[in-house]
Amino acid sequence: MKRKILFSTATEVNQGQGYFPQDIRRLYNVPEYLTGSGQAIGILEFSNGYSESDARQFWGLHGIAVSNVTFVSVDGTRNDGGTSPDDEEASLDLQWAGAIAPQAELIVYEANAGETFATFAEAVIATLRYVLNDTTYQPSVLSISYGDAEASFDQDSLLQISELLTQLDQKGVTVCISSGDQGAYGMHDTRGVPERHADAPASVPSAVAVGGTHLNPDGSESAWTYYGPQNGGATGGGFSDIFQKPSYQTSLNGSGRGLPDVSLNADPATGYQIIFQGQPAIVGGTSVSCPVFAGIVALLNERRAQLGRPPIQNLTSLLYTYAATLPYRDITVGNNSFNGVIGYQAVPGWDACTGFGSIDAAAFIEQLAEVDVAAPGPQPQSPPPVGSGPIVLPKPRSQYPIVRVLATIQTVEADEDVRGVHHHRLLLRDVHVLAIRGADPSIVKGYAFVAIRYGDDEGLQGPIPGLQAGHSIELQGEYIPQNDTYPSVGNPGDPVIHFVHHPIGFVVYEGRTYE
């Protein structure tokens, strides 16, 4: 569950000392006119403490005046002061987030990871809930450098994490998560089955999954690829077996959420300098690229505040929406093969190796500083899992079967308002049965009508934003065959999927669940 810190015994930069903050700021064009002032960066740590004196030594060595560091214990776990060999994790997270956004308040949220993946997931959930309700520090971005293959976690825990990340995103808290250091193999335990695994919780659709590159001193980059003991790993990437492909990735191959989204330097052979227990060290891994990107997001939110705008929301989706114009530095060399598992190749455009590549931070910030964030809609939850076991449906409330389908929206009609109760009215095509209870799947036609109730106690909390023809939608409700349908506004006589709101149904649209 913890990232294995990747130290370098030799590096190609600064006469073997690793990249300094001024190098990374220059090579990624991090603007000097932004410092993170007015922002707070939440750094989530699990059974890893830090030494503030080490951090102050590092920042002082490079002429960086960091504003403030605050330790917050979520469950009573103490900061051990960076005395454990495992504390390099918290040290590099803290030192490099501060190197990028020195005037942001750095909040270290600490919880006990326990000894199992189950206890680690519980710690993550507890910490995210704590941050969601934190009215004292109110960070606008979180950095999480922990995780492992999705298969290591209980599915329900990942869905809870996904729901919490979605709620944080709606509050204007961007969550950045390392995509992993074991390439397409994705597991810390190299004795596992040699097959591809996506890293969790980076695979959560509302997280910004941050991968890794090899950054040369001239600014050119390739995928962080395993070549030998000096590198020690490869950038994590792949496709989720738990989370469906979100709408922002509809143009990509693969059936699940693809990651990473972006990448920054992570190869220990072109590693970062830190101070640990009073001595300089060189580290790599997506454990460092993640807090660096989180620092850039803090600068973005500072710039938005200067323009009178709220913190960025839906950043993961925006990375794809504006892919044609954002200043990505596309990575087209390398792959993420690791531990005998053939990985994904870096190719032009997005790939499951480096995502869209790295960024020109100044241009990235200026473009997204002008983006309007959508007004909050109904409280969404994480998408239901796919490909991970049978779907259990509730009992029918009438003689009609319960069905769960995936379909394409053919037509979006004007909403119906009957005595203050609102309904989205849709015609569906390409209806595909995912599960059915109470009948044979053959009764379900390839087309249907649905009216999704919202705005009262029996329906959804509010309207579903952005319903559009041609987009995929998933529904669960009662299926009323064509011969039994009742006349209604907008229905040309198609079968009806009924009660997709209360008490047995739900709707999944653009990676979010509404119920």
UniProtKB/TrEMBL annotation:
Residues 18-371 form the Peptidase S53 domain. Gene3D superfamilies: Peptidase S8/S53 domain. Keywords: Hydrolase, Protease, Serine protease. The keyword Protease applies. Coiled coil: none annotated. This is S53 family peptidase. It comes from Alicyclobacillus fastidiosus.
